[in-house]
């Protein structure tokens, strides 16, 4: 959940320092993104971490200011604030500390790539872009032209993105079954080469996908 970084500071009608993004975003847009983050936190472990660089960047100070204003509206959610350098270090040291993280686009791009190293592969990370209009669900990684036709790409991020799609439309049982199938495939070492254990059977994209389809059909 991110928003653009380039901002200009000003004073609103109440005499309070405010800001707007010179490209796309405004205070309402930041509030909208934070609301989405709180909604996700309420559905999970009720823990939201706001990541910024408020000790250096003016735009981050606005980001933190708005988050601090909104936090009392969600007393059931524990909100903490963390500078991005500290957050990136703690993700490596103690990844289970985090549940939902919300930040702007530049920091988010860095942290998601770091998260892929923790899981072992970018092929394990799904994503959802849930803006004001049509949501998009896709793997966090981009295309991989070099892997075309080689049957070695990890399909799990794409499959988990489908689970997120179902959950977005409140089809929680369907999403849960997909996640269960993915977990089962990993437990059984049905994995593409980049995450396969030493000496494990070699599975390709098609074989992993078919294994998960067969698992779901049996349920």
Descriptive account of the structure:
- This protein has 219 residues and is of the alpha/beta class.
- The protein folds into two domains: 1-119, Rossmann fold (3-Layer(aba) Sandwich); 123-219, no CATH class.
- It contains seven helices and seven strands; from the N terminus they run ββαβαβαβαββααα.
- The strands form three sheets. Strands 4-3-5 form a three-stranded parallel beta sheet. A two-stranded antiparallel ribbon has the order 1-2.
- Strand 6 (126-129) and strand 7 form a beta hairpin.
- Helix 1 packs across helix 2 (58-70), helix 3 (84-93) packs parallel to helix 4 (105-119) and helix 5 (156-168) runs antiparallel to helix 6.
- The longest helix is centred in the first third of the chain and has 17 residues, at 27-43.
- The protein is globular.
CATH third-level topology of the largest domain: Rossmann fold
As a whole number of angstroms, the C-alpha radius of gyration is 20 Å
Instruction: Work out the helix count.
Output: 7
Return the average pLDDT rounded to an integer. 86
Termini separation (Å)? 33 Å
Unreliable stretches (pLDDT < 50, length at least 5) are 1-23
Q: Give the overall shape.
A: globular
CATH architecture descriptor text of the largest domain: 3-Layer(aba) Sandwich
Number of domains: 2
CATH C-level label of the largest domain: Alpha Beta
Q: Which percent range fits the helix content? A: 40-55%
What is the SS-derived class?
A: alpha/beta
* Proportion in β-strands: 15-25%
Side-by-side strand order of the widest sheet? 4-3-5
Q: Sketch the major β-sheet.
A: 3 strands, parallel
Strand tally is: 7
């Amino acid at each position: 959940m991110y928003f653009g970084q380039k901002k200009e500071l000003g004073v609103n009608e109440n005499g309070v320092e405010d800001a707007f993004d010179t490209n796309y975003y405004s205070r309402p847009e930041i509030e909208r993104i934070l609301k989405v983050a709180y909604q996700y936190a309420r559905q999970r472990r009720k823990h939201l971490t706001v990541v910024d660089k408020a000790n250096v960047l003016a735009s981050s100070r606005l980001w933190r200011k708005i988050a601090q204003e909104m936090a009392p509206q969600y007393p059931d959610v524990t909100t903490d604030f963390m500078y991005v350098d500290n957050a990136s270090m703690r993700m490596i040291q103690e990844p289970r500390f985090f549940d939902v993280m919300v930040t702007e686009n530049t920091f988010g791009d860095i942290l998601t790539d770091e998260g892929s190293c923790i899981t072992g592969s970018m092929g394990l990370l799904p994503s959802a872009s849930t803006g004001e209009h049509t949501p998009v669900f896709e793997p966090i990684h981009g295309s991989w032209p070099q892997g075309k036709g080689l049957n070695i790409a990890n399909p799990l991020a794409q499959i988990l993105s489908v689970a997120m799609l179902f959950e977005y439309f409140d089809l929680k049982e369907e999403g849960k079954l997909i996640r269960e199938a993915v977990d089962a495939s990993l437990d059984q070492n049905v994995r593409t080469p980049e995450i396969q254990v030493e000496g494990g059977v070699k599975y390709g994209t098609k074989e992993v996908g078919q294994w998960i389809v067969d698992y779901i059909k049996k349920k």
